[in-house]
Amino acid sequence: MAKREERNEGTGDMTVREAGHLGGEKGGHKGGEATLNKYGPEFYSEIGHKGGEKVRELVEEGKQAEQEKNR
Q: Three-class SS of residue 20?
């Protein structure tokens, strides 16, 4: 089914697509810069490490569940 964009004529409202595009232009890049300035580059390294640990845990849990299922 094709997506349909609706616009309320005469109200100045924008479509969801237009709002999303505008939001990316206004806040997306600036938000990343603000986080970098506030927490520093080490912050990104730390959250990346935490994410990697979590993925490793989930993979191990999945392997264990698969082994138990096959018993």
A: helix
Q: How far apart are CA 3 and CA 17, in angstroms?
A: 11
Structure tokens at 3: 């997506």
| DSSP conformation letters of 25-49 | IIIIHHHHHHHHHHH-HHHHHHHHH
Range of the domain at 56: 16-69
Residue 24: pLDDT band (50, 70, 90) is low
What is the tally of structural domains in the chain? 1
Is 31 part of any domain?
yes
What pTM did the predictor assign?
0.50
